[in-house]
Amino acid sequence: MKIIVLLRRLIGPPGRPEPGLLGACEAAALRAAVRLQAACPGSSLTALAVGPPRDDAALAPAAALGARTVRLWNLALEGADYDAYARAIAATCRLLKYDLVLCGERSAEEGLGVIGPATAEHLGIPHLSAACDIAWQPSGRLRVERGEGTAARRLEAAPPLLVTVAASCAVGERLAPAGAGGPVELFDLDRIGLLPEELRHRQRFEGTVIAPPRPRAEILPDVATLAQKLRESR
Amino acid sequence: MANVLVYAELAEGRPSTLALAALGEARRIASAIGATVYAVLACAELPRYGDDDAIALLGRHGADKVILLTAPGLGRPTLFATHGPAVVAACEQLPPALLLFPSSVGGSDVAPRVAARLGAAFAARPRIDISGDNVVLSRPVHGGVCERRLAIEDIERPVVLTYDGPAGEPCCDGDAEVVVLTAPPVQPAIHELPLEGGAQAPVPPVRVVLLIGRAAIPDPLERRLRALGARVVVDGVPWEAPHSAVVVAVQTDPEHPVFQQARFGLLGEPADVMERLAGALADAAA
Hints:
heterodimer; A: alpha/beta; Rossmann fold; seven-stranded parallel sheet; three-stranded antiparallel sheet; globular; B: alpha/beta; four-stranded parallel sheet; 6 helices
């Protein structure tokens, strides 16, 4: 089974210090990938990042777990929207070969939840979103559980498949270092068969980031006052 | 005239509250820009007709027309694999300038992939500001420290968005015209399995989102709060608050950035404050 996990380094807001390395959903995707690889002997794991050299750091935890690591970048992707990234990821996945692609449900910064489904669309494979538990079935199909409001739902599908992973997935999974991984392999658009022009036009659809003045929270004296406010807000 | 499409997700045979909220917002936008509102109703069986049926309800909440697609596989669950092809078929017949989905688990599964299929711009749960015929979508990024804004008139592509808000009152008297389209066959590669052990213990809806920065709280306390309708969010975890939830920041330093993202704040060690809050919420629920 060829498993690819998509990783990306957290980006801080303009002028603020760098946050942690991986978002909670990306970290969960990596944990889930390691669990699924271990449960299916003979499987391979590749971690893929699309970003500038700073994203090599996001691949380091996967390399330490023995994964092959690949980073794709081209300046045409700078400031491009989800669709450009999804096209680039899909083209890279095709080149790497895959049975299962895992990624975080949504990034901590943007919170769109779009990259996974859009990548599945460009790969032409089914996707399952917001997995909070994931395991192989004896039949070789993948079983995914996800929360739906106040209930849960269990779904299954056969590879090839893309699954987006919620932050709560595989919590407690022990990640045992498997020696230093190899160096990060660098891919460019040439290698995956895309032209910059195919991606650059998507820069117009991303919108602009601004930092509007924001009112600060009303500081309450104690928990009892908050409980009262909550009762009033119902 | 431009088309504004709304995916009318069903819950127990009726348009869901979130779908009606999205429809009301679509009506507001369409009235400003001079567009026609279509509700896309994809269901397993023809809906009943009557005063309170799904089609009448969609008409009263702002739909000019209802696009009806029926096929046996269009029941639950709402996934792109089951409902996506029907929505795409509607978009092919009536190309939208704007396509709204309810911000439910199902809507959030279908919307991004439909956006990719259409080559559309995408926004999740934006605030929608209308000035004249200009529509601007703004959504918080970086945990609410910044906003990303997209003006619809600046792009020549359709825009797909998920919407969360309260369902408004019925706004229209007239009946919506029904447009029947042929639903593509549903051959989902994804199947639902029964949950072992029967029904799970219900988790109450989120009423409070607690932002605690990089602090840590014990798992048992987090589970207790979750059972009381409070969700704890630490830095690095993507979060979104239902429109009806109250966002509260808890930290020791009054200058901490979390206080810029919340409506209310409490000063103190997050674990201590959370413990007291769990007690207060339990008392209130008793």
